[in-house]
Each structure stands twice: as structure tokens, then as C-alpha cells.
UniProtKB/TrEMBL annotation:
GO molecular function, one term: methyltransferase activity
UniProt xrefs under Pfam families: PEMT
Localization of this protein: Endomembrane system
Species, as recorded: Phyllobacterium brassicacearum
PANTHER family: PROTEIN-S ISOPRENYLCYSTEINE O-METHYLTRANSFERASE (PTHR12714), PROTEIN-S-ISOPRENYLCYSTEINE O-METHYLTRANSFERASE (PTHR12714:SF9)
Descriptive protein name: Isoprenylcysteine carboxyl methyltransferase
């Protein structure tokens, strides 16, 4: 084995640290309490594990268009290096905006004192944390579309849409008409839709 094939071994401690920090962040920021929330958080963590493993040289798939042969979408669609740079930048922006939405939503919920939150990020969408997760997933798919990531993405989307609908039923029971009025005015995940 040459040194290039063993690079992932030297990176492994950093991968483990990243996975521990991301697991802590997922559980802190999403604060799962119900089994469906735990399933969603677990699926999101599996997505992160698959992404980190592939990104750091532990190949989980044998895809003909991998990063060793050029950028995946650029190679598949044939739009070259400049397209790959744009794709990486756009994917990174989506990930950062998604992470910001998750944190902003979490801060609002953490300090909510049991009241209905309709300001800040919640004035633009009813589920900013879940919208943030969707942006992170889409951003990751833009610049690292491996088979595990591609398979987990729709699972994560389905679980969090389902969780959001369940939470909304609970919020209607808890807040009644004010929440129904909020539902009519503010979109679920995408502002302005």
C-alpha cells in the first residue's frame, strides 16, 4: 500500500471528532423527544456519517464519477471545471444558510417560554430548523452526491415533513385558533410559497 491509499487513516481521528461534534449538535439543536424525532435525528446522523466517511476516503460506493475523477455533477453533465466551482460554491452556501436556520430556529425555541413563536425566522416559515436541514441536505447533494447520501436524502426529507405535520397537529391542540391563523399566513418550509 502506498502513502496515498493510507491518507484516510491519518484523517480518521478528525473524522471521529467531527462525527461526535455533529452528533452532539444534531441532538442539541433538534432536541428529539418523541420516537419520530429520534428517527429523523438518527437518519440525519447517518447522512452525516456517510458524508464524512466518503469525504475522507472511506469509499462506501463505487461510483464512476467520484471526486478522484472530477466533480460528480460536472462530470455527469459535462459542464467542466467552471461549472464544478459554481456547483461547489452554491452547495456550500446552501449548507451554511441551512446551518444558520437550524441555529436561529433552535435559539428561538430554546428561549420561547411556552409561547407561540411567530417572529424572527418563524415569521418567514413555520419550520425553519427543518428547512435548514433540507438546505444542508440539498447543499451536500450538490457537492457530494454519493449513493448513501442520495439514498438517505429522500428518507430525511420524508421524515421531517412527517414530523412537521405531527408537530403542527400538536400546536393546533395547544394554541388553537392563533396557530391556525399563523398557518394560513406563513408557509411551512419555503418563504413566499
Amino acid at each position: 500500500m502506498d502513502a496515498e491509499n493510507n491518507d484516510w487513516i491519518t484523517l480518521w481521528p478528525y473524522v471521529v471528532l467531527l462525527l461526535i461534534l455533529s452528533a452532539g449538535a444534531v441532538h442539541l439543536l433538534l432536541a428529539p423527544s418523541h420516537w419520530l424525532e429520534w428517527v429523523g435525528a438518527g437518519s440525519l446522523q447517518a447522512f452525516i456519517v456517510a458524508f464524512c466517511a466518503e469525504m475522507n476516503g472511506i469509499v462506501l460506493t463505487n461510483v464512476p464519477f467520484n471526486h478522484g475523477r472530477g466533480h460528480p455533477w460536472a462530470a455527469l453533465l459535462g459542464y467542466g471545471t467552471s461549472g464544478a466551482v459554481f456547483e461547489m460554491m452554491l452547495g456550500s452556501v446552501l449548507v451554511v444558510v441551512g446551518l444558520l436556520l437550524i441555529v436561529k430556529g433552535w435559539i428561538k425555541l430554546y428561549f420561547h417560554s411556552g409561547r407561540l413563536i411567530t417572529d424572527g425566522a418563524y415569521a418567514m416559515m413555520r419550520h425553519p430548523q427543518y428547512a435548514g436541514i433540507f438546505l444542508v441536505v440539498f447543499g451536500t447533494l450538490m457537492h457530494w452526491p454519493t449513493i448513501p447520501v442520495l439514498l438517505l436524502a429522500p428518507v430525511i426529507l420524508w421524515l421531517y415533513v412527517r414530523l412537521a405535520k405531527r408537530e403542527e397537529a400538536d400546536l393546533i391542540d395547544r394554541f388553537g385558533t392563533p396557530y391556525k391563523q399563523y398557518q394560513e399566513l406563513v408557509p411551512m418550509f419555503v418563504p413566499g410559497w
